[in-house]
Specification:
This protein is of the alpha+beta class and 50 residues long. Helix content is 18%, strand content 40%. It has one helix and three strands, in the order αβββ. Strand 1 and strand 2 (29-39) form a beta hairpin. The protein is globular and about 30 Å long.
């Protein structure tokens, strides 16, 4: 299942402002930076690692 915008927004709306967003793969925890990419034709928001 892929996380959609509505679900992500409902989760983030409940978090305190001082929380950080991270991505964890099999080996590394990576913080997500404030730089994002928006792919209009692909209908995607791409979060970038710091």
């Amino acid at each position: 299942m892929i996380l959609d915008v509505a679900t992500m927004k409902s989760i983030l709306d409940k978090l305190p402002g001082d929380y950080e967003v991270e991505f964890q793969d099999d080996h590394t925890v990576r913080p997500i930076s404030d730089k994002i990419e928006i792919d209009i034709s692909g209908k995607k928001i791409i979060l970038k690692s710091r």
